[in-house]
Design brief:
Structural class: mainly beta
CATH class of the largest domain: Mainly Beta
Strand order of the largest sheet: 4-9-8-6
CATH topology of the largest domain: Immunoglobulin-like
Number of helices: 0
Helix content: under 10%
Length: about 240
């Protein structure tokens, strides 16, 4: 009765050479050699941008801290940070520093603030971009509307005579219908007090587009207040009458 056996011989990585020897028991053997290349595990050498976990939902006007301390370089090289932020339309929010390890901003309007962090090591190797979104809300989970009163403007009393106030760029992130109202906050001294034919007129003050008729030369400051029925926002515009 014949006996069969298989012997394997292995050689050094990364190329494996294996010899298969088959013994049939009659002083006969059959052998064959095969090889396979095994690549060593890939070593990650680029730095990693990481942002510490924090509240991703904040109240409007809250201060938001962005912490890039967890970022690191696998080669233990020094890294520098580069932050960017895209704020909701109408927001004046800005990062306290675009290059500090820890930075912050004020979420002055309702909506989403998209923040990115990228780090670079001292050899110039750059990480992938890390991105988070900060959601600024008002009452409960409601997004307050954003009032946009338009750009400051000038009007010539003798010719044009009217300044059209356009708040149509105002919006609500939840798509809620908006309620508009315009207020006169400041006017030339002679125009202070209730409107009259000799001072100024503010027409359609409870619509997205109002009209200011200034009858006295000077600066008129107006405020647009916009509500979604839950929260309110405001913005100002200055009209110079000449």
């Amino acid at each position: 009765m014949s006996k069969h056996s298989i012997k394997l011989r292995f050689y050094i990585l990364p190329v494996i050479l294996a010899t298969f020897i088959l013994s049939c028991g009659f002083d006969q053997t059959v052998s064959d050699a095969v090889s396979n290349t095994i690549n060593p595990p890939k070593v990650d050498v680029i730095p990693k941008a990481l942002i510490a976990n924090g509240s991703r939902t904040v109240n409007v006007n809250a201060s938001v801290t962005l912490d890039g301390t967890p970022s690191f370089d696998p080669q233990q090289k020094k890294i520098t940070h580069a932050w960017t932020m895209v704020a909701p339309n109408g927001s004046a929010a800005a990062l306290g520093s675009a290059t500090a390890t820890v930075t912050s901003f004020i979420a002055d309007k309702g909506g989403f603030y998209t923040v990115t962090l990228q780090v670079t090591n001292e050899s110039g190797e750059v990480s992938e971009i890390r991105m988070i979104a900060i959601d600024a809300v008002g009452t409960g989970s409601n997004h307050p509307p954003v009032a946009m009163a338009g750009a400051d403007a000038s009007v010539t009393i003798a010719t044009t005579g009217v300044a059209v106030l356009n708040g149509s760029a105002s919006y609500d992130a939840d798509g809620d219908p908006l309620i508009y109202e315009w207020f006169l906050l400041g006017a030339p001294a002679a125009a202070q007090g209730p409107p009259s034919a000799s001072t100024y007129q503010l027409l359609e003050s409870k619509s997205g587009s109002a009209q200011l008729y200034p009858y006295i030369v000077g600066i008129y400051t107006l405020e647009l207040r916009v509500s979604d029925g839950i929260d309110t926002d405001q913005d100002r515009v200055v009209i110079t009458a000449e």
